[in-house]
Write a structure and sequence with these properties.
Elements: H1 5-10, H2 16-29, H3 33-49, H4 62-74, H5 79-99, H6 126-134, H7 141-155, H8 161-165, E1 172-173, E2 176-180, E3 187-191, H9 194-202, H10 221-242, H11 250-263, H12 268-275, H13 281-287, H14 292-325
Antiparallel strand pairs: 1-2, 2-3
Helix pairs in contact: 2-3, 2-5, 3-5, 6-14, 7-10, 7-11, 9-14, 12-13
Length: 327
């Protein structure tokens, strides 16, 4: 019969919770699943904050944004998590305005000032990384793989887990690994050190194009998240067993490479380029003047001690094998 009041309202503009779903789906189609998850989480929290009631995008006010920030803080969420939700909500609002412009007196996020929590996870020391390299977990294949992946990440400019497990033989170009970061799309070229070659050959398999036995071609994003979670849980065990870190994760290895680079006085611009950062405007101006040999030289300086330990370790394993044939 008559059109409901809700349907009349929907004709007047976009509704936020509904639009969040559309933006999240759009991000997934672009392969940006982590951003899609973030959008959905931010939208869900705002929906609950509004009493499980959807509102039009054009009705969002600065007061609501401020109260939503206080609501998230009261839930005990970490500062950086709150920042991610607020910046995601702002991005969604901006996209909605670009899609279907509407009248507004002030941008509801105009007073939003996000200050990131600069608390940094504690990196490993060079001695602790060496302890990982000398560790022998031959009776625990899961611990061995997690340790090897962590060391490979360290030797490859702190390569993120997502990029590392997606590496295939096609990424090997002569004596270098060339890949595009999943997060930023920036091309990274890493000289393959002796220690990295050792890891690659150790897990070489004719049955898969992937360099490491983690990823598979048909893996979904949710399955990838499970892989990362399992890897970090196993690394946590490694850190605790070796007494080097109570919460060792793949990110700790990435930060450890950067920290070790600074300890060895590697220029910040070199570190930024090696890590594939895009948001450091001060150092970005130097990037075009950096040659690949400079990056390779910096990485050799950082990782040579680990490469030597791994080489000596392999020699001992080979020697034990030869000895066993004569027993």
């Amino acid at each position: 019969m008559a059109i409901t009041k809700e349907n009349n309202q929907k004709k007047k503009g976009l509704f936020l919770h509904e639009y969040v779903g559309r933006r999240a789906e759009s991000k997934r189609l672009m392969g940006k699943d982590s951003t899609a998850d973030l959008y959905q989480a931010a939208g869900h929290h705002f929906f609950v904050f509004q009493g499980n009631r959807d509102i039009r995008v054009c009705d969002v006010t600065a007061t609501q944004v401020n109260d939503f920030q206080a609501y998230l803080q009261a839930k005990g969420l970490k500062i950086n998590t709150i920042n991610s939700y607020l910046s995601s909500l702002r991005a969604i609002y901006n996209a909605a305005f670009d899609d279907k412009p509407f009248k507004r007196k002030l941008h509801p996020f105009h007073k939003l000032r996000l200050k990131r929590d600069m608390t940094v996870k504690k990196p490993l020391s060079d001695q602790q990384v060496k302890k990982m390299a000398t560790a022998d977990f031959r009776d625990r294949p899961d611990l061995t793989l997690a340790t090897d992946l962590a060391l490979f990440s360290f030797m490859a400019y702190g390569m993120p887990f997502v990029d590392m497990v997606h590496l295939t033989r096609k990424n090997i170009h002569g004596q270098a690994i060339v890949y595009n970061r999943h997060k930023t799309g920036i091309e990274i070229r890493v000289e393959i050190t002796s220690g990295m070659w050792q890891m690659i050959r150790k897990y070489e398999s004719s049955g898969s194009d992937y360099l490491f036995p983690v990823m598979f071609a048909s893996a979904t994003y949710q399955q990838y998240k499970s892989m990362l979670s399992a890897h970090n849980e196993t690394l946590k065990q490694v850190g605790q067993l070796l007494g080097i870190h109570n919460n060792l994760t793949s990110y700790v290895m990435r930060y450890t490479w950067a920290s070790e680079a600074r300890r060895l006085h590697v220029d910040i611009a070199v570190i930024s380029q090696a890590l594939g950062h895009t948001n450091e405007k001060t150092t970005r101006g130097y990037f075009n003047r950096l040659d690949q040999p400079e990056l390779d030289q910096a990485n050799r300086k950082i990782t040579n001690p680990i490469c030597k330990i791994l080489s000596d370790k392999q020699k001992r394993i080979n020697w034990r094998g030869v000895e066993a044939t004569y027993l």
